[in-house]
Amino acid sequence: MKSRVAWALVSLLAFALAPAAYAKPAAPSGAGATLTNHGAKIWYEVRGRATGRPLVMVNGGPGFDHTYVLCSDAWDHIGQRRRVVFYDQRGNGHSGALAKDESCTLADQISDLDPLREQLRAAKIDLLGHSWGGYLVMAYAARHPEHVAHLIITDSAAPKWADTEFIFKYIFPEGVDRQGRLDFADALGDSASGKESLHEYLKMLFVSTEKRDEFLSRSSTYQYNRQVNEALNADLAKYDMWPVLPTFKMPTLVITGRYDINVAPSTAWKIHNAIPRLPLAGLRAQRPPALLRGAREVRPGGWRLSGRVLALTDKWSHSAPRPMGGRTACKWSYFAIDPLACRDSISVTS
What we know:
The chain is 33% helix and 15% strand. The protein has 350 residues and is an alpha/beta fold. The chain is globular and about 50 Å long.
């Protein structure tokens, strides 16, 4: 698979709330608002008017806008209890194309997040990053740990971009070959082949043909910018965040799909192991055992991950670390695998 496609969405994880069997699409985005950071326009939308710390959703790519995450109405439900914030990264979606000679680097992406936080009037935010967004929230947390209360890293690329373990080529070799041919034509100026290549990629993310077709029926609303993807891929090759992860002190949840056949779950496992954590018994301040039941893995037909994670973000929106026996329970890393999340993403239930 060509790098611009391989480094697109890691997987399309959608959260659904009980009692619905399948997620419903969220309400489409409205007009939103914009801010400017060093000349770059950044569009954002706030759902919900509750007080407390906002949950900022950082979508995947690089090169996609936020629209694909609206495949689930979980955001509308959680927005009834706290603010949920979407934004389009520079050069994408409502933020508009990159201006001539405008840079698009990891440093730029980190820089764009901070004025958004200031615009929300939040000293600290809860960050949820998906795919490339998982990489970006790790980078922001590394540079601005004082502004991150809690971190959720879902189906993320590796902290060193080249260390991400892709396995599409082993599971769908024929699809990857088709993409290669389409990408060749796209590179020669055939934009229709580029769109077909992206469609080929997206359809490999699902087990359920019903859910695949449902998701792809809305794919015309998902915006992808090749220029942004290529600029960031070139820049990200310079960085290695592995040495930084052991310094994280904010509570962190790492999530992946057991059958995520784009990026192997081993990538998330390594991220989890790199972040310091307290024993589960010492975590009553944030109460993850009550929400996560101490399970290392979520199994079909049993306890479901998604609604619990959303409930956890609600707890986090107002929680603060409390002293426990002379110490403060202020850092932990938890690893959860949802066996249904990555390839039947629309039908993940709580």
